[in-house]
Amino acid sequence: MLLTILILISAFILNLFLPWWSIAIPGLAFGFYFNKKALPSFGLGFLALFVLWGGQALYIHFGNDAILSTRIAEMLSVGSPLVVVLITGIIGGLVSGLATLTGSLVKETPRKFS
After folding, report:
1. Biggest CA-to-CA distance, the chain
2. Looking at 1-114, which runs of residues are DSSP E strands?
3. pTM over 0.85
4. Cβ burial, residue 22 (10 Å; 0-12/13-18/19+)
5. pLDDT per residue over 6-18, tens digit each?
6. Using CA atoms in the order 101, 82, 54, 72, what is the torsion angle rounded to 10 degrees?
């Protein structure tokens, strides 16, 4: 759970100053440092950014009376504006989950020097 909290906080801070893809950096770093197995690494990284981006999208959704998410839902033809919030969380979760998985697998890779 500590891995999830650290990824969430550091990704939030990085997202304030860097582009959207900077959310992968904490996943890579903490996935390497904590060196968990593959599935838990992916799951904890996914959970961190699903909560962060989904929460931010939900905050924006309610903050502007669902105007933005409704327009995006119409543009993408997904029906409900809450589906846009869910898709946002899933995309963030996938990026971070795969980055955390990559970090943990790099740590597990045997180093062979010949």
Report:
1. 62
2. none
3. yes
4. middle
5. 999 999 999 999 9
6. 90
